[in-house]
Structures are given as C-alpha cells and as structure tokens.
Hints:
The protein is mainly α.
Amino acid sequence: xxxxxxxxxxxxxxxxxxxxxxxxxxxxxxxxxxxxxxxxxxxxxxxxxxxxxxxxxxxxxxxxxxxxxxxxxxxxxxxxxxxxxxxxxxxxxxxxxxxxxxxxxxxxxxxxxxxxxxxxxxxxxxxxxxxxxxxxxxxxxxxxxxxxxxxxxxxxxxxxxxxxxxxxxxxxxxxxxxxxxxxxxxxxxxxxxxxxxxxxxxxxxxxxxxxxxxxxxxxxxxxxxxxxxxxxxxxxxxxxxxxxxxxxxxxxxxxxxxxxxxxxxxxxxxxxxxxxxxxxxxxxxxxxxxxxxxxxxxxxxxxxxxxxxxxxxxxxxxxx
Length: 320
C-alpha cells in the first residue's frame, strides 16, 4: 500500500465523516417534536421563560448557526449535553457502548471461527451432502427475521420452560463472581440468536471463496507436490480466505452497533440500541446525534481497517 493511497484514503474518510455529520444533523432536526417541550410542558409557564429555556439549549438560533456551532464542538470532541440525562452525551454513550460490544462482538467472533471451519470444509467438498445441508440452512435462516427468531427463543426457553430470564442484563442481587455468572446467564440467549443468524451466511461466504481459491495455480502446484489435503487447507486455502473474511468481520461488527436496536429491545439489554430508541422518543438531539455519529464513524473506520487487513493477509492485493 503506497503512501499516496493511504493519504488519499484518510482524506476520503475525513470527507465522508463531515458529510455524515451534516446529513445526520439535518435529518435529526427534521424529526417532529420539540426537544425543549419537556421543560415547559406546564401551560402556566410564561412565554419568556420558554424562550429562556430554548436559549439555554441553543434552540433559539437558526438551524445553520446551530450546525456551525455543533461542527465546531464536534471537532473538539464535544457532542453536547443530553436533554434527558443533563450530562455530556459522550459520557452517556461510553457507559452503554461496552454493553453493546459485549452483546455483538462475542457471538460474531465465535460465528467467524465456526463458519471458517465449516466453510473451508464444504468448499473443499463441493456438492456433498454437508455442502447442500449448510446451503439450504443458510437460505432458510436468511429469510427468517432476526427479531422473530429472538422472540421464538424467548417464548420457548424463557416463558414456557423458564430456563433463562425474560429480560435484563444482571441479577441486582448478584455479588462477586456471581455477577459475571449472572451476566453470562442473561447474555446467553441473545448470543445464541446472533450466533445462529451469522454462522450460515459467513460459512457460505467462506465456501465461495474456497471454491475460487481451489482453481488457483498455486493450489494445483501444491497438489502436484503431493502435499496432504489438511496441509493444503491450513497453509494455502485458510490463509487466502482470512483476509476477505476479516474485512467482512470488521464491517459486520461495526454495522451491529447500529443494528442492535431490535435485539436489545427484545432482551431489555441496556446498550446503544435502547439508547437510540430512548433518544428518538425524547427528541434528545445531542444524544441521538452522538449515537448515530458513533455508528457511522465506526463503519467508516471499519472499512478503512478492512483495507489494511486485506493487504496484511493477502500479499497479492496491492492498493496504489
């Protein structure tokens, strides 16, 4: 990867972030509702007091002036004060972000490991019984909505059988090491949902890569040298499949930060997803803006690092 390409990508990333900030700012302000109404909902409050409240939050200024002020604060790392929590939104988001990362990253990483093994195997055994079963299962799960599958597991294992809690993250009475056990206990069902949904798609992605790799000349040469099939899979096929898979993984984890609303709502998991829902309901502009921007910036950064991983794992790839 040349230095000129790297600088070009950094500039593109910076420009994309500015555009994302601008678009999200406009769209969020276009939402219905008055964010300051909660502070003067009493009709007996005089009009001048209402105007003072709006001025305190900067809502009395034209939208363009609000945008310039927000942009200036954004590049200083200040995303404003939450109308709901009356705290800096960065602090509120940083409290919720680790919980969403825990909820999404663990099953995603586990599904990548499982799908890598499954995908390499069925790719080398193209059109076998195992290959057909995984493909049919992948197509079936792809058509099943994630929220429906999650609700099905909740109804069966939590409501009917009572094996797992219906909601929450940690038992409030748990102490010491039992806190960790309680956390794992509450996280098990959402992890299962995300794991089961991810594995077939990842496996098919790896399978298709393996099939294309098998047609390369270096694989033919390795077979001609008499290398064992297990060694060819480990040293040649697996290494060439890791680059694109890690690229897909980084984008998937980043995308899940914004796509966790349904899962967190169903399991009452207090992460970024519920925070977005809460901010939108309360017309909390700064908080909603922060959650949207963190999701967008995560995807942009993930795309950037995916390019770097592609070069690191596949020496044939070069960006100029």
